[in-house]
Amino acid sequence: MKFPYQMQRKCTSHHHQIPLSVILIFSFFILTFSTACFNGNCQPCSAATDCGPGLYCGHCPGLGRTQPVCTRGQATLVTSIVNGLPFNKYSWIMTHNSFSIMDAPSLNGVQRLTFYNQEDTVTNQLRNGVRGLMLDMYDFENDIWLCHSFQGQCFNFTAFQPAIKTLEEVESFLTENPMEIVTIVIEDYVRTPNALINLFRNAGLDKYWFPLSDMPKGGEDWPTITQMVQENRRLLVFTSDASKEAEEGIAYQWRYMVENESGDPGVQRGSCPHRKESKPLNSRSASLFLQNYFPTYPVEADSCRENSGPLADMVNTCYKNAGNMLPNFIAVNFYMRSNGGGVFDIVDRINGHTLCGCSTITTCQEGAPFGSCKNISVPSLSPMTNTAGSFTGSVQFSRRSTSPLHSPNCSLFLLFYFLLTAVLLQFP
Question: Per residue in 196-206, pLDDT tens?
Answer without folding.
Answer: 999 999 999 99
